[in-house]
Amino acid sequence: MYRRHPTADNQRPGSQLPPSTAARTSHAPSSADLIQRRQLEKPVSWSARERLRKRASQARVGQSQRPSHKRLKMRKRNIVLSLAAPAVAVLISSCAPAAPKVASNNLTVRCSETLTGQDVTNGGVAGTGRCALTGILHDSGRVTDYRSQRGETAFIRRVVTGAKGTITFVITIPLAGPGPGGEPWTITSGTKTYTKLHGRGHQVVDNYTGSPATFVLKGTVPQARA
Length: 226
Known about the structure:
This protein is of the alpha+beta class. It has helices at 19-27, 31-65, 69-95, and strands at 106-115, 122-135, 139-150, 153-162, 165-174, 183-190, 200-207, 213-220. The chain is rod-shaped.
């Protein structure tokens, strides 16, 4: 018969493992432990990534909210332009040449006369008095009317002598009645300051029945102010 070799204590049924072996066996991770550890590590790692993403997003938002150097320059330029615009407008308006003043060439002649009381037809004196010129001309002085007649039209040659010279007006009066604008007149001659004076208009007031008689001439004189 063959002898049986003695069995080692750790191979006998019911025998306990040595302490060092038991410790190594108890610390060996099982598959369940590995799964649980991975599940615990996973949320930790994702939370760290989320924190990094949040910080990066906040940094981008801060950069987008901060005005760039170009925008700051544009804002400063707009502020300067808005402040300088009124001053520039005032400077331009002050430097612009003033528009030339165009003197009105309107003329008004107001006369007050004493008539002879008869219709003179041969060019003789029909009345005397005084006249005042206003508008483009400023003068006053004596006046003499000379009356003539041809058919149904009377002509009054009114000679006004003022301080600056003499002006002769010729007024055409239709005996059938004046037109809608009055009785037309023209300047036919002048002396001194009025030598080259010309003009035309209408006698708008012909109060020959008054005492004294009053007449008003209105028109234009396209000449320099006298």
